[in-house]
Amino acid sequence: MQKSNQDLTNKVALITGAAGGIGLAIAETYLANGAQVMLTDYPQKRPETMSKLLEKYPGQALYIGCDVCDFDGVDQVIIETLNAFQKIDILVNNAAVFDLAPVIEATEDSFDRLFSINVKALFFMMQKVARKMIELGVQGRIINMASQAGRRGEALVSHYCATKAAVISYTQSAALAFAEHKITVNAISPGVIDTPMWAEVDALFAKYEHLQLGEKKIAVGEAVPLGYMGQPEEVASVALFLASAGASYITAQTYNVDGGNVMS
């Protein structure tokens, strides 16, 4: 049996939400496996970790700031990626935001913000990049970032859960739509992953569940069947597989990376 090939040499990846956490881990993993990568994130986000990555892979890794809700800016990111690398083989739709509140208190502003970034921006980035893949004859890979929250409802997390459920649904629909072009579309559903975002998540749970700061983070890690929070690199390894030759016959799937929290 032929072994899976995870070498991404001569492949070009565009990654949103790449300034930290899971997005940055995917970028680093792709670069280490030979890909050329355009990293993008909100314009004001460029931490030292990203700067170090750009210095480590000069010419192979590039960065452009972009608000994914600004579709003119998204168009420019795609143009800049094509100008630099001539094609896009892989799109990782990772940009997302989080919020929570009891259903009785959930606001329209929170709804609009979460759906604009987590769903609308993701869909139209996917559409725009897929158009270029089809135009250039690229048998591409699209990887959308869902969440275990999209597999269920949560009393405090209604808007976020709904956005991630939408990501899973759009992944399935797009996979069927792009199958004739041999473009695969899959999603990754992380569980509790130890990223900088967890400081925000933990603080919100502390507010509404009357907990001490840090208490929720410890509790959710201990509740995972494997007994600990995952690391961004553990999600990145699945993103590498889905972008690789070994995943050529996989589409319309959502992979759980959650230590056993969800069984599906």
TrEMBL record:
Xref: Pfam families: adh_short_C2 (PF13561)
E.C. numbers: 1.1.1.14
Gene3D superfamilies attached to this UniProt entry: NAD(P)-binding Rossmann-like Domain
Enzyme class, UniProt record, top EC level: oxidoreductase
PROSITE patterns (UniProt xref): ADH_SHORT
Database matches in InterPro entries: NAD(P)-bd_dom_sf (IPR036291), Sc_DH/Rdtase_CS (IPR020904), SDR_fam (IPR002347)
Keywords for the protein's UniProt record, in alphabetical order: Membrane, Oxidoreductase, Transmembrane, Transmembrane helix
Gene Ontology MF, one: L-iditol 2-dehydrogenase (NAD+) activity
Record field: transmembrane: 12-32
UniProt KW Transmembrane helix keyword: yes
Coiled-coil positions: none
Family, per entry: Belongs to the short-chain dehydrogenases/reductases (SDR) family.
Name of the protein in question: L-iditol 2-dehydrogenase
